[in-house]
Amino acid sequence: MPRSPQLWTLILGFAVLHMVLAASIPVFEDEAYYQLWASAPSAAYYDHPPMVAWFIAAGQGLLGQTLLGLRLVSILAGIAVSLMIYRITWLYAQNEQTAFRAVLFGKAMLPFSILAFAATPDAGSVLFWTASVWALVEVVKGGSKNWWLLVGLFAGLGVLSKFTNLFLGLSLVIWLLASREGRARLKVWQVWLGAIIGAAVLVPLALWNFENNFVGLERQFGRIEEVSEFSAGHFVAFLLSVIFLITPLLFWLVFRAFRQTPTPKIFIWLIAPIFLFLTWQATKSVAGGQWLIPIFPLLAVLAALSAPKNWATRWAAPTGMIFGAIILILGLWPGKSLLGGHFFSQMRGWPDIHRQVLTIAKDEGATWVATDAYGLTAQLNHYLGADIPVWSVTQPERYLFRTGARKELCTQRAVFISRTRFAEAPPYFENGKALPDIFRKDGERKLMQYYVAVVSGPTEEHPYFCR
């Protein structure tokens, strides 16, 4: 365990900041969706592997159904990632200041400075990718061959966090087969046992997909086919998003590390497959820089190992943190987000929606809330679930984990809420009466319009839990 006071000041300072943010910022839409998953931990889910739900369930098991409980394990994962960045860098540089600088660079990147409190699949993805690389570097730098067992375990747990982490397994296989150093290590039995451990971790995930007609795999890998003709615009947008997330000066230091200094060869093997694939993907379809987040800690290590003694190195972390603080302040400005877009507005105005929906349900004699979009279902369940059942009447594949819908709901009145305007009668039900629209507001500014009806008598195919 490192004894550097400045390291612990940095790590614990950010941990406190993230806990304050976690306890005070309302849930984002995706977080509410993952929280719904955590109500019934499963071996897999339609949209992602299960780790994010397990993280949330663990945090809420410790702190209850609170915002901090929802996000606690994600924050702890960020602390662990920082310690592993320090260790990886120290193994190469044998210098505490260089190792500290790598952690500082990592903390300055936007995903780890302003968003590390959020409960998303990226928390587990980054944690286990970095952990697997740490274990591998321990081996490469002369540690026990038993580290290979942890390489495999962490790689498997990474895939249980996000399918993006399959690229780490691919990178390891390519390195072991294509490099002279890698082929020499194939004689070590721990390499093979580590691979078996990593594969064994994935068995429950594979069985869940087999039992459910591979809906999760089709959902994720079907995106690979969603490509079009070459688009310079998509590529530029991808590159700009990467620069934005890393922050400009840090991006320059990372670029310089590849261009001007001898980079540890194994780092190239670990980075190249995911970077080349997503760069190619970005020339054909929309791709986001956030898909590269699992390799950001390794990029911070590279930048620190090659950082020159100049103004860019001195100011890269401070300017990155200032950049992140400005975005956070503008996005969370009290009463009104000063940044446009859905991301910072999606968590505002829900208490008033809560009151309006409960009033409508009471006035109309409705016993449950029906929805037709997963994000809306999740947000309404987060705020209303303790008072009135909330169930989506569409996309049953998203709710394979969810049981306990009382069939008597299907004979009772419901408040139907949708973000999609319906022409006359609301869809999915035999009987329906449109009610006045309701609005989610930020002060006086309308953020989202919801179309409302009181409904009964579901049609033959809807909702799925009434069949």
Description:
The chain has 467 residues and is of the alpha/beta class. It has two domains: 5-331, no CATH class; 350-466, no CATH class. The chain is built from 20 helices and five strands. The chain has helices spanning 5-24, 29-38, 51-63, 67-93, 96-108, 110-113, 121-140, 147-159, 166-178, 180-185, 189-201, 203-211, 215-221, 232-246, 248-260, 265-282, 296-306, 311-331, 350-364, 374-384; strands at residues 368-371, 390-392, 414-418, 429-442, 445-458. A five-stranded mixed beta sheet has the order 2-1-3-5-4, covered by helices on one side. Strand 4 and strand 5 (445-458) form a beta hairpin. Helix 2 (29-38) crosses helix 3 and helix 3 (51-63) packs across helix 4 (67-93). The chain is globular. The model has no long low-confidence stretch (mean pLDDT 90).
Which descriptors apply to this entry?
alpha/beta; 2 domains; 5 strands
- Structural class by SSE content: alpha/beta
Series of secondary-structure elements, N-terminal to C-terminal: HHHHHHHHHHHHHHHHHHHEHEEEE
Strand order of the largest sheet: 2-1-3-5-4
The value of Rg in angstroms is 24 Å
Q: Total strand count, please?
A: 5
* Bulk shape: globular
Q: How far do the termini sit from each other?
A: 57 Å
Portion in helices:
55-70%
How many structural domains? 2
Residue stretches low in confidence (pLDDT < 50, at least 5 long) are: none
**How many strands, which pairing sense, and closed or not: the largest β-sheet?**
5 strands, mixed
Strand-residue fraction? 5-15%
Number of separate helices: 20
Averaging pLDDT over every residue, what do you get?
Answer: 90
